[in-house]
Amino acid sequence: MTSTVLEPALYAKARLPLEQAETLPRWCYTSQQFYDEEVGRIFRKTWNFVGREDEVPSAGDFFTTDVVGESIIIIRDRNGQVNAFANTCRHRGTRLLSGSGHCRLISCPYHAWAFAPNGELVAAPGMEDVSGFDKADYGLIRIRLESWGGFMFVTFDPNTVPLSEYLGDAVETFAPYRFENMVCTRRKDYDLACNWKLYVENAMEDYHTATVHRVSIGKQICIREPSTANWDAIHMPSEKTCAILPGETTPFPHIPTLTGKSAGGTYFTVVYPNWFFATTQDCMWWLYVQPKGPARSVVNHGACFPRETVERDDFKTEVRKYYQRWEKSLPEDNEIAELQQVGLESTLGRPGRLSPLEPVVHAMEQWVLDNVLGGKLAQRSDGRG
Ligand code: FES
Ligand SMILES: [Fe+2]
User: Do 198 and 342 meet the contact criterion of CB atoms below 8 Å apart?
Assistant: First the structure.
């Protein structure tokens, strides 16, 4: 595509109500130009999921992550606060950390400048006689980080609304799951040749479950939930957890604070743009789809259980049933996402139509178009930042 990619008329049919709408044009999933607009207009401005606070329980615990090409350090300091910093040295820019681990100081491998876990530059050997040099001016570059029930998000934009405002009524809707009482027990990455939207859209529709998952979790029937902020959900009624394969049983208790629909089924939720999570009676899991290019994504799978469940004597053996469920169902989704991507790469392809079983696919397409074409992401107006 040329510069016409931002021309609203190109999306007129995708903008129609679900019953009449066509799917997004194929270039939304394949073109570098559309992808670059998404990076600039969505990912550089929105709240991006990075992980769980309980993954860095002690001072000096850290992990690094990548958000649309920016390497970020997440590290807990001696006051217990978790910080996000650009992973670049304040001397001559060397990358400081990789992977995850524990450190007392972040020490640059090049000339040994050392930063405390709160970002302060505490040692700069050989810089004592440098004119006007004050260590206080060269701390690590801080990135805005806010949390929701232990889930951490970062944004590069000082004007983005606070996370709680961005999430809106999701905070109240999911409060009974007590995310803050959960522990992350699993993280696994899948490097896939597909556009990030394909994976999120797939996670938010049950239309594919009878075919793609016929030998694992089988057919699921979900109903769309109302929401008013930057998220959407579908609900699947069921007596018991859907985080194990049909036919398996589990001794893990239900979360005692659940009532009504949350006690009687599973919510599949997307926090736009790219954080999917499922909440069922005894646990939650997420799929964080990191965009790496128009046709490449890293899907990070994580799972959390209530602290009391993780402390059970039988946790390590019984949790295998849950991991087995994801080991079976996720590769099925991975395979179909890559197959859809190569199909969409065909220059002969044309938009299709959506079924009534895909309301959130349609909603997500509108959210993406609202922001890529219209720059609708809410900006705070209080002058802070
Ligand atoms: S680049 Fe980090 S100390 Fe020189
Ligand atoms: Fe699926």
Answer: no
Residue 111 near ligand 1, beta carbon < 6 Å: yes
pTM of the model: 0.95
Q: Closest ligand to 97 CA?
A: 1
The Cα 87–Cα 70 span in angstroms is 8
**Inter-residue contact 317 to 291 (CB < 8 Å):** no
Give the 3-state DSSP-derived string for 92-134, with helices as H, strands as E and coil as C.
CCCCCCCCEEECCCEECCCCCCEECCCCCEEECCCCCCCCCCC
Question: How far is the C-alpha of 373 from the C-alpha of 366, rounded, in Å?
Answer: 10
Answer whether 97 contacts ligand 1 (Cβ < 6 A): no
How many angstroms is it from 22 CA to the middle of ligand 2? 22
Q: Whose CA is nearest to atom 3 of ligand 1?
A: 111
Distance 91 CA to ligand 1 centre (A): 5
How many C-beta neighbours within 10 Å does residue 16 have? 13
The amino acid occupying position 90 is R
Q: What is the pLDDT of residues 55-101, one digit of tens each?
A: 999 999 999 999 999 999 999 999 999 999 999 999 999 999 999 99
Q: Could you tell me the distance, in angstroms and rounded to a whole number, from the CA of residue 78 to the centre of ligand 1?
A: 24
